[in-house]
């Protein structure tokens, strides 16, 4: 007899390993159906999130016996960098998949460390405590993939084979031959070198950056990053705060250097809609990075000429109606920044994204 009609299993599953599979099999023993929430959906590939949500869904689906496939549904959820909002979105999307009344709901609880604290924020759903299955952890598995040259290939393959279901092992073996793997591995190594440069500091560094969100004639100004991290991804023009600059001076300088758009102090102040700070501890893989986003609206129907420069491989005005489909191509949390700033400063010249 099932404990609940629907059980919810939340994770990033980067990648889906034997511990995850055992947990899902246990969940199917206590619930008539299981809804798997795939976290960090719609993110660009990175060393922390190498596989897009569609790939992770296929990994999981390929591991299920035919008799179980019809009992598992999937919900992709983006990162909101705001726990209450994220919890509300998980509940909204999950409950849309169950009958409207009289269905018992349970949340699979499998706390492994402080990162599992979110499990205590779903009081509407019955907590179903299941023990953690094995000692497999996804983080060292990803590290193996980025550091293949440091161990014999046979040892790496044996370690992966011991931790991954066979369909996932096959998928990752094939993936290692793709340009996507090469790009993420290059980024992982660049980030490792970046962190090593600060390893001798007495305290973990806190980085301060600036970004500028410029809207004009129903377009937003974006750059394509020229270097790792985020090489080739879309971003707001910006960079690190210079020692001799104020925040605004740095933002103006970075805007001009990366896009060629030079604004006088008067034009900057006339266009300024507001400033928003983004300081979520996990917003950047470079380390603790706090950014200050200047939101500008330029009047008129003519788009100023822009050209990529400095750290930007390209700069361009992107139509606002195209932003939504570009979400998986954005660096770090920059799409989240767009959504948040448009919601805060919209209603006038700026749009509000769904």
TrEMBL record:
Residues of the Nudix hydrolase domain: 193-341
Keywords, in A-Z order: Nucleotidyltransferase, Transferase
MF terms in GO: nucleotidyltransferase activity
CDD domains from the UniProt entry: NUDIX_NadM_like
Name of the protein described by the UniProt record: NUDIX domain-containing protein
Species per Swiss-Prot/TrEMBL record: Comamonas denitrificans
